[in-house]
# Entry
Amino acid sequence: MLGWFHRLGSPKTFFGMSQSWPKTFGLLSLVLLALGTVWGLLFAPPDYQQGHSVRIMYVHVPAAAVAQSCYLIMAISSAVFLIWNIKLADWAAKSMAPIGASLAFLVLITGAIWGKPTWGTWWVWDARLTSTLVLLLLYLGIIALRNALEEKGNDGRPCAVLALVGLVNLPIIKYSVDWWFTLHQPASFTLTEKPKMPPEMWIPLLLMAAGYYLFVFSVWTSRIRNEIISRERKTAWAKAWAGSQ
Amino acid sequence: MKPHRRQRLAVILFLLITVGSGVTFMLIALNENINLFYSAEQILTGAAPKNKTIKAGGMVLEGSVERSPHNLEVRFLISDMQGHSVPIIYTGILPDLFREGQGVVTEGMLEDSGNFRASRVLAKHDENYMPPELADMLNEKHVQNKSWSKIP
# Structure
């Protein structure tokens, strides 16, 4: 088990192993996203109150879930880097930050577009919306800190600590709607109860969510591979790989 | 796990616990300020300040909406569904989702008379989603049940 873990941590092994991942998972995600989009936008029923603006859900809800998952993955990579000193984990955390930031941005934008017709406002400072904005700002802070560190030739240790500190925001986002009075509604999906919507709505939503996860995985591994090859470009194996392309 | 790694893991766990408990205490201290709105009960018991812009939220009580025949003024009661309700007066266009039995958040001032004069009404959406046909069916069932209950 540990041997496997250490082999995975070697940039060269990971690079060789992940050769086909970006393309395979990228194609798979495109299929799911195309299916989910067509189903969600054209065939899923409108909502009895929101009408057709409910369709924003198919973009908004998976983006929200995945933006938070990205943060969790980034924080775990950061912890692995701090404890085991595995460089690849640092690069993995670095590669994740812009993906998570884009998704957090997408959540806020689509939420505002949905909020205007549904609630009557683009934005309120309720706990759910504010903590999601904090998530975006955390991502941006981590990216900015990383740029400043790399300019001086340092690794991402302070970034990793910041990512771990920011982890406290995830339960706040999740439970904000239960702990405080918010304008945002509570979760429609819980582990213990039936979804609060019919299957013709949650099946396309599930397809979209799976598509988002695969898309993130594809972009993430592709970014990690870029990071590896640009940092190891002077090694013999990287030169040999470049020659073979 | 080697000792120095175990030590680093301990430092990280310590960091998470410290930050976590620090933020928890902060949120508990700020609890009232994080709530977006005051509930009907808080307004009735005087927990909400008067003549100051605040938000009040709750369910629009069934059968309480009265529209003025002359202008856009509308009066309704918002309730916490536990027996507390606050009268709201609003002049303007209501959001599409506004209806009786629906959650709303209103922004405005609590007057000395106990009326809440709203300058803005936001509709709250709940976590339930359903197609219109299903909603109609549920409504019919609801009406049927009501009429049945009247028979005895």
Notes: Residues 78 and 160 of chain A are 5 Å apart (CA to CA).
